[in-house]
Each structure stands twice: as structure tokens, then as C-alpha cells.
Amino acid sequence: MPSLNAAVQWNNVTFSVKGKTIIHNLTGTFYEGKITTLVGPSGAGKSTLFKLCNGLHTADTGDILIAGKEIASYPPVELRRMVGFALQDATMIDGTVYENLAMPLTLQGKDLSEEKAQELLQLVGLPITISTQSTNDLSGGQRQKLSIARTLVNRPSILLLDEITSSLDRVSQQDIEALIVRINKHYGTTIVWITHNLQQARTIGDYTWVLIDGQLIESGESSLLDEPENNEVRLFVKGDNS
Ligand SMILES: Nc1ncnc2c1ncn2[C@@H]1O[C@H](COP(=O)(O)OP(=O)(O)OP(=O)(O)O)[C@@H](O)[C@H]1O
């Protein structure tokens, strides 16, 4: 494997909620500038990993290093700027596309320039004329593109995507997949993508993690999904364990 830097390094991380261990002694790396897809059965702890990564949860034991520095050493605002987060339901405030796009800066008492707004809309493939429209009029695919553009306002170096295409039709899904690859190439953004779609995980990912019951059971180049070494992973990929 070529020598790659760690965008996020997990060392023996354990996390519990109300006495129940959700993440078990997890060690692994999300590589800088690469796309890692994260798969596993429902309840495996995938979303929990994201919350540990952007400071919404704190690990009980172990270390999480972001760009080589212990996560707790980052001021929360800086961490949220570095680690962008997009979710399946692409929640919007009641208002225009521009107001939603500007929200991360508005919250910091800053403005988003018209020029920057147009650049971001173009990057995600939305017409710039959409800027003054209400977000209530957008399709599911357009909302998701806006949600991704909004995450990019802070220029995150790491982008966490949680099931962002699962409620979209096939065409919109492919559109978003191409967009994420474009963002990865254009900005060198490290992408980590939770998906239940194993085909997507295989084709979009450079690397894949398979998480089962809070344990990282198998990880490596995404081709591992073709012929997993681990029996539990083989069953999961065959659909027997999802
Ligand atoms: N706040 C919480 N309180 C109690 N249990 C929780 C909490 N958050 C998560 N869990 C539990 O932690 C486990 C992992 O949940 P998580 O959402 O990370 O899984 P997931 O792999 O993302 O699942 P899915 O694919 O269904 O989204 C589950 O058993 C869930 O019930």
C-alpha cells in the first residue's frame, strides 16, 4: 500500500451509552484525500463513529487523532469547520436557497458573498438562478445538493456523509455520487461515506470499512467486498446478515 497520511486515526477507541458498549476497541485509519466507505448492518455503530469524529460524542477510552492532533485539543468551532457532516434528510431552515447556503457563516456572524454562493451552486450542479427560491420548492436531489454545498461553505478537510442517497431515485443518486467524487478530486477532501448500498460502497470507495456489532471486522481497499476474508463479512455481503 502506498504511504498515506491519516486524516482520522482511531487507536483502541471504545464508546458506551448507558452501560452498553457500542464501539469496541476500534483501531483504524481514514486516509487523507481518499474516499472511505463505511458499511455494516443496522445498529453496527456507523453513525456513532461519525459523532465521535465531529465531537458530538466523546470516546470512553482510546485516542482519535484528526490531522495528527488529539480531537479534544480542537476548539469545538474549529472541529466543526474541519469536519463537515451531511445527513440523509438534508434538514433546511424555512427560507431561500441562499439563506440556507449562508447559514454556517450566518451562525458565525459572517456573510457569504454572492460570488461564493454562485461558485458553490455551480460546483454542486444547481442553477445559480435557484438562489432566491424557497427550499420548499426543491426536489429531494436538489435539497441534497444544497445540503452538500452548505457543508462546503466552511471548506472542511474531512466530509462525513451519512446515507445521503438512500431516499433518492437512481438518477439523482448517480448525480450525487459523481458530485462527491468531483469534490474529492477538486479539493482533495477526505470523504467518509456511510451507505447500505454495497455496490455504491464498492464503486465509489477507495477503501472500505465493514463494521459489525461495533467492531471493525474487515477494512482495506474496497475490492475486499468482492471476496471478503472474514466469514461474518461474507454473510453480510451475501445479504444474510443485514
Ligand atoms: N443515544 C443513544 N442511546 C442509546 N443507544 C444508542 C444511542 N445512540 C445509538 N445507540 C445504539 O448504538 C448502536 C449503534 O447505533 P448507530 O446509529 O451508530 O448504528 P448504525 O450502524 O449507524 O445503524 P443504521 O445503519 O441503522 O443507521 C445501536 O444499537 C443504537 O441503538
TrEMBL record:
Chain ranges of the ABC transporter domain: 8-238
Entry-linked Pfam families: ABC_tran
UniProt xrefs under Gene3D superfamilies: P-loop containing nucleotide triphosphate hydrolases (3.40.50.300)
GO molecular function annotations of the record: ATP binding; ATP hydrolysis activity; phosphate transmembrane transporter activity
Keyword Endoplasmic reticulum among UniProt keywords: no
GO biological process: phosphate ion transmembrane transport
A Gene Ontology cellular-component term: membrane
Keywords: ATP-binding, Nucleotide-binding, Transport
The protein, known as: Phosphate ABC transporter ATP-binding protein
